[in-house]
Structure formats: C-alpha cells, structure tokens
C-alpha cells in the first residue's frame, strides 16, 4: 500500500507514478542521449510556387530515429524537449545541420532554395537567440539569406514587445521570418504589421475543406488579401489535392506545401527535386477548379 511504501524513502513516489509518467521519464532519459548518439534526423518538405509549379524552398522537420521505436514524429517528443530544456542544444544542432545541408546541396550543384526552421517557445525565450543563430550560421559559412525561421502566433503573442526585438535582431542577420499555423493561435492582427515578417503560413485547418466549405473559403481569401496588403508572401499548409491547389491558385496564394506536392523527405531524396525544379505542371494549376 502507499502507506507502507511511504516508510521506504526510495519508493516513496512510486505509488503515484502512473504508466504515462514512467514512460515520459524513460523517454526524457533517452532524449538526453539522442543528440550524442546522433539519433535525430531532419526531413525536408518542399514548398511549391503556384505561379510556376516550381520548388520554392524546403521546411526542415525533426524526426527521432529511435533504435527500437523506429522513426518517431515530433509531436511525440517536442513537448518533452521543450519542458526539459533539451530543445536548446537540439535546436542549435538543427540550425547547424540545416546550414551543413545547404552547403552540401550547393556542392552538388543545385540552384539554392531557402530552408525554413521551426523555432519553439523555449528557444525564443533565450535573450541572446539572435547571437546564437549568428554564431552557428557564421561558423558554418552558409548564406544567411537562405535561412528562414517559422514561429507560431502564440509564441509571438506571449510577450509581443520582446518578440518584436528578437525578430528585428534576426532580420538584421539577413534571414527571413514566417508566422506558422496562422489562424489557429491567439492572434492580434495589429501585431502583424509590428513584427518584421516576410511570410504568413495559413494553417491546414482552413485548407482541408476547400473549396466546398464556404466559411473556410472566405477566411482563406481574406487572410491572403490581408497578408498581401501587408506585403507578406502567403504559403498554404496541408494541401493534399489538386483541387485545393487550383483553388488557392485562384485566390492568388503564393505557395503551397502539403502531401499533394510532396511529403517531408530525407535529405538524400531532395537532391532529385532540386535538380528537377519543376514539381507540378503549371498548366494543371492554372486550370479552373474541377467541378463534378
Ligand atoms: P508545422 O511546423 O506546422 O509543420 C507541418 C506539419 O504538418 C508537419 O508535421 C508535416 O509533416 C505535416 N504536413 C505537411 N503536409 C501535410 C499534409 O498535406 N497533410 C497533413 N495532414 N499533414 C501535413 P510534423 O513533421 O509531424 O511536425 C509537426 C510539428 O512539430 C510542426 O508543425 C512543428 O510545430 C513541430 N516541429 C517539427 N520539426 C520541428 C523542429 O525542428 N523544431 C521545432 N521547434 N518544432 C518542430
Ligand atoms: Mg512549420
Ligand atoms: Mg505549420
Ligand atoms: Mg503545426
């Protein structure tokens, strides 16, 4: 019983530890080792220009190559990395790894395309984040203009004043900034113009039921129009069908990302896409949305 166990200091907390907590602790210990064991890997998901159908950039997405569990998706461990602060060294590894990848692709003779990196709240709270980024990118020799950072609304709104300062410092390094999952967070449109952003990414929740859902169609068109008036480029996330792509093309959306164009891919598989450039036939995109 708990009372009995209570007399034994070593097992005092055991009765209240459920299976989830135990599993979480084990995962945390494994995550502390994962960086040293080089178990983290980045996959890259293409962004495609709707005007041309060509590859416009990549987004780096973290995976954990677990020795037993296989390839673990980020939603199963990013939270633990955040809560424990392990995201700080892992985040620095991600930035360095993207820089190394940019140089590798360049050496392969590929025309350069920008690569976006997701930043977490914990990373963003670092007062010296811009200096950290500058140090890593500077040491790598990668072109800062090919780097982009994606930040969510909630992350920016947590402390808008200090967020604005950090964003400005990153902009001064020559890098680009995107607002990620737009429309799902706690948004304040007033801040859109105060943050030095380049791109707005519309969350896939608004894309999923296009073009049938009239509300989503209205929201998506309004957000694209707003973004363009603020001189922001627009990327639609989670585009899974040609019909969605055509609809967004009709709304003058700039780029799409999603399974229709490509799933996130290991770096080696991106080489062929970089060489090809053309990912979607332009004529397909320009045609009016199919109505059955
Ligand atoms: P996100 O930055 O919004 O990334 C988009 C997510 O949607 C990715 O999931 C991607 O695989 C998925 N996705 C892309 N196209 C489609 C589609 O057509 N349909 C559907 N249903 N899903 C699609 P992933 O890779 O599992 O990442 C989930 C989230 O984890 C990311 O959302 C981001 O918030 C976070 N994350 C991923 N990598 C990193 C990282 O390196 N650092 C940080 N801090 N967070 C990361
Ligand atoms: Mg993202
Ligand atoms: Mg997103
Ligand atoms: Mg997301």
From TrEMBL:
Signal peptide: none annotated. Residues 24-278 form the EAL domain. It comes from the Bacteria. This is EAL domain-containing protein. The lineage of its organism: Bacteria, Pseudomonadati, Pseudomonadota, Betaproteobacteria, Burkholderiales.
């Amino acid at each position: 019983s708990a009372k009995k166990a209570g007399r034994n200091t070593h097992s005092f907390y055991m009765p209240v530890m459920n299976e989830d907590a135990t599993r979480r602790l084990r995962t945390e210990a494994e995550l502390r080792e994962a960086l040293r064991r080089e178990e983290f890997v980045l996959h890259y998901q293409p962004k495609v220009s709707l005007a041309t159908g060509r590859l416009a950039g990549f987004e780096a997405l973290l995976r954990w190559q677990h020795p037993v569990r296989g390839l673990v998706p980020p939603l199963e461990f990013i939270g633990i990395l955040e809560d424990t602060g392990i995201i700080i060294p892992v985040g620095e590894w991600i930035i360095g790894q993207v820089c190394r990848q940019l140089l590798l692709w360049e050496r392969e003779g590929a025309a350069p395309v920008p690569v976006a990196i997701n930043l977490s709240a914990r990373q963003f709270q670092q007062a010296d984040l811009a200096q950290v980024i500058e140090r890593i990118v500077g040491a790598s020799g990668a072109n800062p203009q090919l780097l982009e950072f994606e930040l969510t609304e909630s992350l920016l709104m947590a402390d808008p004043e200090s967020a604005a300062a950090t964003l400005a410092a990153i902009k001064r390094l020559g890098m680009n900034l995107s607002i990620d999952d737009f429309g799902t967070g706690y948004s304040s449109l007033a801040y859109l113009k105060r943050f030095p952003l380049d791109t707005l990414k519309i969350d896939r929740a608004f894309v999923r039921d296009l073009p049938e859902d009239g509300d989503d169609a209205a929201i998506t068109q309004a957000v694209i129009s707003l973004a363009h008036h603020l001189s922001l480029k627009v990327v639609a996330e989670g585009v899974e069908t040609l019909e969605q792509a055509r609809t967004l093309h009709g709304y003058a959306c700039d780029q799409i990302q999603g399974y229709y164009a490509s799933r996130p891919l290991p770096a080696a598989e991106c080489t062929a896409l970089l060489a090809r450039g053309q990912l979607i036939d332009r004529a397909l995109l320009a045609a009016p949305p199919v109505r059955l």
